[in-house]
Specification:
The protein is α/β, with parallel strands linked by helices and 246 residues long. Helices cover 39% and strands 19% of the residues. The relative contact order is 0.17.
Length: 246
């Protein structure tokens, strides 16, 4: 919790879903970036766990993420959060889950996030994008990594289209989006393609590519200024978006 949130509640809230390919990762792996995002945004950050593959493949992590968002909405008084300023976001697999949360919330007409923050999200399991071929090896996240994660999360290849946010039939009415990509990331192009689809659907969307960064930079705050500057920018964008009258 940032100091300003302690001083003046209710505060904006980010429900954060960690990355890790739907197979690894937990609250501890993403504690540092969550703290940095809280400081940069002035928002409360509620980091939530979800069940992981292979024991719990698609769609269980999505169901857990949506249940966590709904639980946060129901507990805004307890959390000191403003129900009109709840965002959902995450990195990589967490970005994928956040896109699903925003879409499902819009589709079922229930409480919806005010903002979705998608940091180098996975959005398409169907098409092979140029960035996947360009950065297939040597840039932290490799093609072998992606195939391993995907094989555990989607053991039934037939569900790949329905598990892909980029393949949603309709995107009209989903929450405004901040989509953040990294220049040297296999997932770069599909994340940016999703931002384009959101814009085509009339969803207010900001796309920001950090050209010198690699996949996973959110967890690399100890090895250079670039990741810290990116987090500061994400936090600033959240601060602005969650301050708008709706």
């Amino acid at each position: 919790m940032p100091a300003e949130a302690r001083a003046a509640a209710p505060s904006p809230l980010l429900v954060f879903l960690h990355g890790g390919g739907w197979v690894v990762g937990d609250l501890d792996t993403h504690d540092a970036p969550c703290r940095a995002l809280a400081r940069a945004s002035g928002a409360l950050v509620l980091s939530v766990d979800y069940r992981l593959a292979p024991e719990h493949p698609y769609p269980t992590p999505i169901d857990d993420a949506f249940a966590a968002f709904r639980d946060a909405v129901a507990r805004t008084g307890e959390l000191g959060a403003d129900p009109a300023r709840i965002a959902v976001g995450g990195d990589s697999a967490g970005g994928h889950l956040s896109a699903f949360v925003a879409h499902r919330a819009a589709a079922d007409g229930g409480p919806a996030p005010a903002l979705q923050v998608l940091v180098y999200p996975a959005t398409d399991f169907v098409e092979n994008y140029p960035s996947e071929r360009l950065f297939a090896d040597g840039f932290v996240l490799t093609k072998a990594n992606m195939d391993w994660y995907e094989g555990h999360f989607l053991p039934d290849a037939a569900v790949k289209p329905e598990a892909s946010p980029l393949r949603f039939e309709r995107l009209e009415g989903v929450a405004p989006a901040l989509v953040v990509t990294a220049g040297f990331d296999p997932l770069r192009d599909e994340g940016e393609a999703y931002a384009a689809r959101l814009r085509e659907a009339g969803v207010p969307t900001v796309l920001r590519r950090h050209p010198g960064q690699v996949h996973g930079f959110l967890n690399m705050t100890g090895i250079g200024r670039g990741p810290l500057e990116a987090i500061a920018e994400i936090g600033g964008a959240m601060r602005f978006a969650l301050a708008l009258d709706r």
